[in-house]
Amino acid sequence: MKRKVIITVAPVGSVPTKKDNPHTPITPSEIARDVVACYHLGASVAHIHARDDSGKPTADVNRYREIKELIEKECDIIIQLSTGARTGNHFERGACIDLRPEMASLTTGSSNFSNGVNLNPPDLIEYLAQKMYENGVVPEIEVFDISMVDNARFLLKKGVLRPPLNFNLVFNVPGSMSGTPKNLLHMVEILPEKSTFSVTAIGRVQTDLITMAVILGGNIRVGLEDNLFYSYEDKMFGTNMMFVERAVRIIKELGREVARPDEAREILQLGRR
């Protein structure tokens, strides 16, 4: 059987605006619309950030609820809510976990952004992890450098995290780990045994690294959170749907198959922990 590859779509994140790319979804209905369209094209996981009425990042649980409910009315894509550093201050970032999504992001360390700090102190990491497990939410461990893999290993031994772990390896964020094939290979090599991994690559290196991720046995993430341009040479804006379509083509050209949501749930062992 051909190996199944999971596509995650990250439709907006906390940074892009319509001035950066006119196709950027901002409102709950726009975000849900893009997610549902990407689901029909082959995405099995949706990594969700919320924006307030002014378009700024928010940890407001009601905003997350609205997006989640709009998506669930239309499809059975796996919803993964963000608890990232740009969504709020400290413990309020965990409010969305009460909505009991199937997954939520969990960054296991601090790093730099281009104009700020990706702050994740130990007490916050443990608080978020505990709250996820109490609500039946599977963490996706987001790592921006090697130390975050090591800390995930430490938290696994400590019992804060539970095996098997699902990682999202994030490359090329300005201020953090660069997006080189050598860095990706090393990160994959040091993951705990039986872990799954997905690769997120920001900007120009996205197509190269997601292709390499498929070859190495991983999954991939695409979307306007990570890349505004479909073609940098032509300065051609992308859409979430265009990025998912390209991801599908890459997977098929490499002789793999795109995982459906039910297959993704099996691969990620959702509902078993």
Automatic annotation (TrEMBL):
Q: Which Gene3D superfamilies match?
A: Aldolase class I
Which keywords does UniProt give here?
Metal-binding, Transferase, Zinc
Which cofactors does this protein require? Zn(2+)
Quote any Pfam family the record assigns: BKACE
Under InterPro entries, the record lists: Aldolase_TIM, BKACE
Q: Where are the transmembrane segments?
A: none
What organism is listed for this UniProt entry? Desulfofundulus salinus
* Top-level taxon in the UniProt lineage: Bacteria
GO molecular function terms attached to this record: 3-keto-5-aminohexanoate cleavage activity; metal ion binding
Q: Could you identify this protein by its name?
A: 3-keto-5-aminohexanoate cleavage protein
